[in-house]
Amino acid sequence: MPKSSEVRVRFAPSPTGELHVGGARTALFNWLYARQNKGTFLLRIEDTDEDRSSEESTQGIFTALKWLGLDSDEDPIYQSTRSDLYRDYVSLLMNSGNAYYCFCSAEEIEAKRQEAVEKGEGWRYDGTWRDRSPEDVQAMLDAGAPKVVRFKVPEEGTTVVDDQIHGEVSFGNENLEDFTLLRSDEKPTYHLSNVVDDIEMGVTHVIRGADHLPNTPKQILVYEALDAKVPVFAHLPLILGPDKKRLSKRHGATSVTHFRSKGYLSGAVINYLALLGWSPGDDREIFTLHELTKEFSLDRVNSSNAEFDVEKLGWLNGKYISEVPAGELMNSVRDALSNRGCWQEELEMERRDYIFALIDLWQSRSRTINELADNIAPFLTEAFPYLPEALAENIRGKDLLGPVEALREGLTQVDPWNQEELEVTIRQLAEGFELEASELIQPCRIAVTGKASSPGIFEVLELMGRENTRVRLDRMIRYLSKVKAAQEGATAVGS
Ligand code: GLU
Is any atom of ligand 1 closer than 6 Å to the C-beta of 212? Predict the structure, then answer.
């Protein structure tokens, strides 16, 4: 049994899809709260809905949590394996007069709801079976009529949620319906299984999304009916998209796996999630998981909604990538390069130092690992695209074939192959053609990187090496020749 002072929190996802930003933030805040209070972080899979839950989603959630570094302290609990437990609790509630059988069919209830809707009224369960005689009930049981179990909500009074983030929120009991605890197939509803498990798992603090705040008074009533200690509640602010609507699929991919596969670092994602609703009280924005453990507090979680800003996440990720030692990026970069087909295992040892140098060169200019790999790829393979906007700005409409051919020839003479010598040669060549240095440098840059901006071109060329540079300039020459031929063809046709 946990010690009475021990903090026990849990993350309780329904495995109906991938782990999204909102769920991951809930997991993080629970995890931080546990670490901070030397407590326990538990995981519970709320998989009672057979149709919507899947093992694949469960495994995906585990993988995403592991990647984020949010490990649980005990084995996960699966609600689908605990039906007997929920039924036992229902018996307790029935025996104490806090719950009752309701034999209204789903159709009957739907018809009443429809009728109310047509009259423009709201409808909640009208208590048809709330105070029926034991004989009536027995007769239905004997007849084997389908039934659900409902909770008997007190008719009067208020239920107050004393929330750590939102303060005291009162709900009039007369507005709460006698909600279902056990469905006709004897499956527990969310309200039942959630409360039973929080009691059984010794959960002391329920930290979850504010979308659950309206559920909380019902759950508190169940705790009270069971004479169980009501946990401390903290409802985290909702996460909205840029249009101020609740973050959803409409706003694009927001799963943790998506960001992982796009080349975000788990440290940056964690850092960003922490800022969704929490702030340190000053203008600091960069926090490792370890620092967050020290700094985080529920007191500094806002009650107002948070906005998910993928640009800011990208900025933060870029900052992480630029500051992490190149060695730490090696494995992820290697995977990303393999995916692009430009990592050759047999050259691994030989290329290691080269890749380190390339990471070092590009890391401060890449917002994701994928971008970093895209930036590095042209150093390893010839087959990389020229960005259309780079071509449009620097090549189209100019006759650069001659200068670039001269550049290729000129570079064969550079000795030693280093930044200083490269710079002298390239500037002289440009002058010879009465070009600004940049007018020659830009096609050269596109030839070797595919882009119109890069780290210093002389540094890039030095690292790329003489042979790789020559091969890439050859390709640019082929490209420029084709463009020229096409232009001449067009002029000839036009004349
Ligand atoms: N399964 C619920 C959800 O995913 C958990 C609610 C709770 O944390 O109590 O929203």
Answer: yes
